[in-house]
Design a protein that fits this description.
Elements (H helix, E strand, L loop, with lengths): L2 E4 L11 E9 L2 E4 L4 H6 L4 H7 L9 E5 L8 E9 L7 H14 L5 E5 L5 H14 L21 E4 L7 H25 L7 H15 L2 E5 L1 H7 L2 H7 L7 E7 L7 E12 L19 H16 L4 E11 L11 E3 L5 E3 L7 H14 L4 E6 L3 H7 L4 E5 L2 H13 L4 E3 L17 E2 L7 H10 L7 E6 L5 E2 L10 E2 L4 H12 L4
Helix pairs in contact: 3-4, 4-5, 5-9, 6-9, 8-10, 9-14, 10-13, 12-14
This protein binds ligand BES, manganese (II) ion (MN) and zinc ion.
């Protein structure tokens, strides 16, 4: 991964491949953001004018390059846009976006000097995170691991003009690096092709990482799942040649202020099963384990940050495939804990694996359960490809989760769980069916999950089907493919709990 460091030298004195400044849209045209002073001096105060001449406007996402004048030790100046000018400081999201655009634009360069707004620790953290996320690439499947690529990610970022021995800034770089590492870990898992990432290999990856970071990992294999009666996970996984797993990843702190259970949908490939998805709907379905990826990484992040909280991640891993052994529409599954479910559509598989995990997690009586799942196409219809839906059995908790998500740069929206949508899920043969009304499908799925939450436990459900996988062009610090959505929200929740605020 790219390395971020703090430099006490000015942007003019720094030797790099490029110096990055930020620009914004002012009422009378382009303005320079704080941090660009030394660079502007080298341009004899004409940097804004020069950038305007070559077409820069300061719009968010913009990246404009100009050659450096003699006074700079670096040959190139890159100006990235922040959007509207902000007199009282740029938002963390604007800084993350600008840093991410800079890192993406400088793909193939070795070192960049950031002459960007970095006056406080929060800004330093935002720049660190944005740069490390923007520089991300996935090369595991290129021949020679991508070594043959002519261009490699930006290797080094130096944030210039910082004070010597600034402990808060140093801590900010460290925290930003931890979050970026774990988000990029999630992206790697999501981007891995489903012939490489399947329940067993995912469980092995979890075991190895758990050992490294002192996080306890327990894997229930198929035999253990049968013994425990995990009918949901087994019913989804039975059609695949690759057997399912339930993985428990536990981070504990001796002075924990609260206990959280995070549950991730981990369908390593969703073909739809016997209710097979048509072509056009299955090309990106390796992303159907993005919830499990986010849960896994956020537990590791909590461990790396040493948060005073107990966080247990549950990864419900299965591959949803059609075969002679697969669950049929009409089959009844006996879920973990004994409830029965009539499977009317094998493509509504996420709720089945999650239900087992929710019941199992509930046995440990955590203060809160949060599940994260690429659960429904309906949520993508409702909220688009960049916002996830938040449902809960508690209005205050739903607000907390939604607000925390927004505060860390993950667009989220509170969604209801209307009780009238429960009745259509009644089954003629089992306790409940896995299908309900078509309209409001995301809410129907949420209501299904709610049935499995033990009384007295506060629960929220994040439907990340929209933002988990970016099928469009890269933007800001988000590449194509896996995005690692929800990692920051889960980490923020764990921090909130550790601070005794939940
Ligand atoms: N994994 C899909 C949901 C999905 C859709 C994720 C688009 C990411 C992008 C899920 O398992 C699914 O197939 N849901 C069905 C449910 C339906 C059969 C009730 C859906 O949304 O169509
Ligand atoms: Mn499905
Ligand atoms: Zn699915």
């Amino acid at each position: 991964m790219t390395a971020v460091s703090l430099s006490t030298s000015t942007a003019a004195a720094l030797r790099a491949d490029a110096v990055v400044v930020a620009v914004a849209k002012g009422p009378k045209g382009l303005v320079l953001a704080p941090g660009a002073e030394a660079v502007d001096e080298a341009f004899e105060g004409r940097l804004a004018e020069v950038l305007t001449t070559v077409g820069a406007t300061g719009a968010e996402g913009e990246a404009v390059k100009v050659p450096a004048p003699a006074g700079l030790k670096s040959p190139l100046v890159l100006a990235v846009g922040l959007g509207e000018v902000a007199e009282d400081g740029y938002s963390a999201e604007a800084l993350r976006t600008a840093a991410g655009v800079a890192a993406r634009t400088l793909h193939g360069s070795k070192k960049a000097g950031f002459a960007l707004p970095a006056a406080d620790a929060a800004s330093v953290e935002a720049l660190t995170l944005g740069a490390l996320l923007g520089a991300y690439t996935f090369t595991a499947c290129r021949s020679d691991n991508g070594k043959a690529d002519t261009k490699t990610p930006l290797a080094e970022v130096a944030i210039t003009g910082t004070k010597r021995g600034d402990k808060a800034a140093k801590a900010a770089v460290e925290r930003g690096t931890v979050v970026a590492e774990e988000m990029n870990r999630t992206r790697d898992l999501v981007n891995m092709p489903p012939n490489d990432l399947f329940p067993k290999s995912f469980a092995e990856i979890a075991t190895t990482a758990g050992k490294e970071l002192g996080v306890k990992v327990e894997v229930l294999d198929e035999k253990a799942l049968v013994k425990g009666g995990y009918g949901g996970i087994l019913g989804v996984g039975v059609g695949s040649a690759r057997s399912p797993r339930l993985v428990k990843v536990a981070y504990t702190h001796p002075k924990a202020k609260a206990s959280l259970a995070f549950i991730g949908k981990g369908i390593t490939y969703d073909s739809g099963g016997i209710s097979l998805k048509p072509a056009g709907h299955n090309e990106t379905m390796k992303c159907d384990m993005a919830g499990a990826g986010a849960v896994f990484a956020s537990v590791l992040a909590a461990a790396k940050l040493g948060l005073q909280v107990n966080v247990t991640g549950w990864l419900a891993l299965a591959e949803n495939m059609p075969s002679g052994a697969a669950t049929r529409p009409g089959d009844v599954l006996r879920m973990y804990g004994g409830k029965t479910v009539e499977v009317l559509n094998t493509d509504a598989e996420g709720r089945l694996v999650l239900a087992d995990a929710i019941v199992r997690a509930g046995e440990e009586k955590p203060d809160y359960i949060v599940d994260v799942a690429t659960l429904t196409g309906a949520m993508v219809m409702a909220l688009g490809s960049r916002t996830f839906g938040v449902m809960a059995n508690d209005d205050a908790f739903r607000s907390t989760v939604t607000e925390l998500a927004e505060s860390v740069g993950e667009p989220a929206w509170a969604m209801p769980l209307p009780t009238h949508l429960r009745k259509p899920m009644d089954s003629t043969v089992a306790d409940i069916s896995n299908m309900g009304e078509r309209m409001g499908g995301g809410l129907v799925a949420g209501l299904f999950l709610k049935e499995f939450v033990a009384d007295g436990i506060t629960w929220a459900h994040l439907d990340i089907a929209g933002p988990a996988f970016n099928e469009g062009a890269p933007f800001g610090y988000t590449p194509k493919g896996g995005t690692a959505t929800a990692v920051r929200t889960l980490v923020a929740l764990a921090e909130h709990a550790a601070d005794g605020k939940l």
